[in-house]
Amino acid sequence: MTAPPLVEIRNLKVYFGVRGKRMLQKARGYVRAVDDVTLTVRRGETLGLVGESGSGKTTLGRAVLRALPVTAGGIRFHLEDGPVDVLALSGRELRRFRRHMQLIFQDPYASLDPRMTVRDIIAEPLEAPGHLRSKREVDERVREIAARCRLNLEFLRRFPHAFSGGQRQRIGIARALVADPEFVVCDEAVSALDVSIQADILNLLMDLQEELGTTYLFITHDLSVVAQISDRVAVLYLGRLMELGPTAEIFARPMHPYTRALLSAIPRVEAEHRFAPVKLRGEIPDPAHPPQGCRFSTRCPFARERCREEVPAFRELARDRFAACHFAEELAD
Amino acid sequence: MAAGDALLLEIRDLGVSFTTDDGMVRAVDGISLVARRGCTLGIVGESGSGKSVATKAVMRLLPANARLDEGSRILLHREEGEIDIAALPARSRELRRLRGGDIGMIFQEPMASFSPVYTVGNQMIEAILEHRDHLERRLGERFDRRSAREHAIRMLERVGMSNPRLRIDQYPHELSGGMRQRAMIAVALSTHPSLLIADEPTTALDVTIQAQILDLMLELQQELGMAMLFITHDMGVIARIAEEMAVMYLGRIVERGPTREIIREPAHPYTRGLLAALPRLDTARRRLTPVPGDIPSPLQRPAGCPFHTRCPRHMPGLCDRILPQDTDLGSGRSVACHLFGEAAS
Ligand SMILES: Nc1ncnc2c1ncn2[C@@H]1O[C@H](COP(=O)(O)OP(=O)(O)OP(=O)(O)O)[C@@H](O)[C@H]1O
Ligand SMILES: Nc1ncnc2c1ncn2[C@@H]1O[C@H](COP(=O)(O)OP(=O)(O)OP(=O)(O)O)[C@@H](O)[C@H]1O
Ligand code: SF4
Ligand SMILES: [Mg+2]
Ligand SMILES: [Mg+2]
After folding, report:
1. How far apart are CA B269 and CA A241, in angstroms?
2. Which among B244, B190, B185 is positioned nearest to B217, based on CA atoms?
3. Strands B252-258 and A183-187: what pairing?
4. Is residue A327 in some structural domain?
């Protein structure tokens, strides 16, 4: 049985204006950073979001949190007391709503204020509206979450500069989870860490999810990390969804040629893939001038006439498996 | 592989220390390595393990606060005879000729090695002309400006640049990340070096572009018969590109040998830990096995085995006191750990 939806993203578009070479010129066109993405994040799951640099992962994650302006589309949150249209929230309502969602990002160094103690950094989300608590309650909650994040309670009185990368990321996680959010966007949360440390942080995120039932949108360019942590994977390319499905199935039998190429390109220490590898040529196109038809058609080794003319629909090909390729059935082996 | 086995670079007891405001940093602590013609030696290690410092030392590109140990030897076995790079005077002509001549280099950040104010072509032509004696020996052709330009265009074509006659007159910032990395490989290879040092050359790239660049490097290596020293923190990349590997931790090589064997059956507790900590593609939602603890500060190197503070097999009284020496495991493998030394038995 599939879990009920927590976040429903419908036909979401986020466009950025691009300027001409001269400063005062008007916007010449748009980068369609996220272009017509429809996606449901289920309650309690980890949905991995992968794609190459510039594919729109960060933009999508931030748009869902309403951290940047949305061009078109809908975002609906299903809370216990009913659905919320996130894009319709006014400034004040949005500030109250924010406690349901949090962001953990890549650089634990840049994201922590060096003049605040670790305790104050972790406690900050509790100061948002809707959390009227006494100092004692706050202290108690901070200690509780710090312990869960395996942070030494001694650290709470110190400043963040004295900590290693792994410890700083634990502080970032404690801060994100202190207000008990339903939904957390992790944007390259472990990408800056060495593997021996990264493993520890991934375990921590999985443990906390089991204890607290948090839902993660897990953004990364590292496919082995996504293989490890997510229940389902969504693959983005130049602002569009190429494929979506259960992680194990996608890694064993990708349906979209781009997913297949992406998986083939991973340098791996374990045995070879079970599917026929696909090699790509050429560069990622300029996102301000994406190819007509299928966005992947300029690099796809299987592209035909139709691919360059008609945008392939994102459709369900098998139970819970979606892909946007005209010839997915034919190409799947 | 008979010809490919010829020794090209031999590093012996290389040590580098930095003087800093906070004290002495021992970045490379007496490492020895060999690189052979036509082969790739991969150096893998986590951040701060000394990979970049060691390779910069090979080219003598260390900053002013660095000191190379007295006894360090960096022997380059050239057809014209052997030289010790460690013994060359810092500003000698000899050194300048080696860099970018016999030894090609690729860095992680391509912008660092391209000047933004000259076109890609200008920089390539300058490099070719500067090393024209070396190229004459390698190719039997003496280049002038015009033929150097043709050679540069051929190299750009060789690394898979579309439209090289147009690209050669572009500035580095006009190229995409993948293109720039290719241009850098073209620059490094345009002088037909016998040794290519590549420090994380693909780390900043997307996997699909990385795969293309790695294929290209292997292909060109075959063609030119050069030795490669390939530095990365990515075990998967090492598995893909290097026949032999060395694992560094806190400035020391803790294990070395044929890549496949080490990955199949790592000996050193650190190598085992690294491989166990790797997320795998074939196992969804499995708990990982991290290496416990944090990498110690370079200002406070542990006594004895550098890994003993995090090692699950650490033997008190031995590992925290005595530095383990290399133990030969046969078939080209060695490990520096007391579990394998005589002291353990
Ligand atoms: N504020 C902005 N103004 C203009 N363009 C932007 C802005 N933010 C992002 N873009 C563009 O939108 C596209 C998607 O960017 P985004 O940062 O979402 O990609 P990403 O998948 O997160 O990439 P990476 O893996 O490099 O983090 C890119 O082409 C980027 O240049
Ligand atoms: N100019 C310098 N002054 C002082 N210490 C330095 C200097 N350059 C490097 N170090 C130190 O030398 C050690 C080795 O650094 P190095 O850059 O070789 O590591 P690395 O293995 O290349 O790491 P990474 O994977 O992060 O590139 C580190 O502890 C680093 O802090
Ligand atoms: S020498 Fe001791 S501490 Fe070092 S790796 Fe071997 S067992 Fe572990
Ligand atoms: Mg991003
Ligand atoms: Mg380095």
Report:
1. 42
2. B185
3. unpaired
4. yes
Q: What number of other Cβ atoms are within 10 A of residue B191's Cβ?
A: 24
C-alpha distances out from residue B289 to A168, A171, B45, Å: 20, 21, 17
Structural domains present in chain B: 1-102+193-290 (3.40.50.300), 117-191 (no CATH)
Q: Is the residue at A100 inside a domain?
A: no
Strands A315-318, A321-323: pairing is antiparallel
Distance, CA B88 to ligand 2 centroid (Å)? 23
Q: Which of A149, A56, A53 is nearest to A108 (CA)?
A: A149
8 A C-beta contact, residue A190 and residue A168:
no
Query: From the CB of residue A200, how many other CB atoms can be counted at a distance below 10 Å?
Result: 23
What are residue A2's phi and psi, to 5 degrees?
A: -85, 145
Can you give the residue range of the structural domain that contains A331? 254-333
DSSP A130-191: T----HHHHHHHHHHHHHHTT--GGGGGS-GGGS-HHHHHHHHHHHHHTT--SEEEEESTTT
Looking at chain B, which residue has its C-alpha nearest residue A45?
Answer: B285
Quick check: CB of B26 below 6 Å from ligand 3?
Answer: no
Domain membership of residue A27 (yes or no) is: no
Q: Is B164 in the pocket of ligand 2 (CB under 6 A)?
A: no
- Structurally, chain A folds into a number of domains equal to 1
pLDDT tens-digit map of B163-191: 889 889 999 888 877 788 888 888 888 88
- In chain B, which residue ranges form alpha helices assigned H by DSSP? 51-58, 93-98, 110-113, 120-130, 132-139, 145-158, 164-167, 177-189, 207-224, 235-241, 259-264, 269-277
User: Which chain A residue shows the shortest CA-CA distance from B280?
Assistant: A224
* Beta carbons of B53 and B258 less than 8 angstroms apart: no
What does the alpha-carbon distance between residue A234 and residue A244 come to, in Å, rounded to a whole number? 4
Three-state SS for A233?
strand
Our CA angle for A245, A98, A88, nearest 5°, is 80
B159, B162, B216, B285: best mutation site toward chain A, by most A Cβ within 10 Å?
B285
3-class DSSP state of A202: helix
Whose CA is closest to B262, among B51, B43, B4, B37?
A: B43
Q: Is the CB of B108 under 6 A from ligand 2?
A: no
In which residue are the tokens 């496919």 written? A223
pTM: 0.89
Residues A194, B295: C-beta atoms closer than 8 Å: yes
Per-residue pLDDT of chain A (333 residues; tens, 9 = 90+): 688 999 999 999 999 987 655 555 555 678 899 999 999 999 999 999 999 888 999 999 999 999 999 999 999 999 988 999 999 999 899 988 888 999 998 776 677 788 889 999 999 888 876 666 788 889 999 999 998 888 888 889 988 877 777 888 889 999 999 988 999 999 998 888 888 888 988 999 999 999 999 999 999 989 999 999 999 999 999 999 999 999 999 999 999 999 999 999 988 887 666 777 888 877 788 888 889 999 999 999 999 999 999 999 999 999 999 999 999 988 876
Point out which residues pair with B19 in neighbouring strands.
Answer: B24
Mutant choice from A52, A164, A194 vs B, greatest count of B C-beta within 10 A = A194
Minimum CA–CA partner of A259 in chain B: B208
Global ipTM: 0.85
Do the domain assignments include residue A285?
Answer: yes
Q: pLDDT tens-digit profile of B36-79?
A: 999 999 999 988 899 999 999 999 999 999 999 999 999 999 88
Tell which phi-psi region holds residue A213, choosing left (phi > 0), alpha (psi between -120 and 50) or beta.
left
| Residue A332 and residue A253 in contact, taking contact as beta carbons nearer than 8 Å | yes
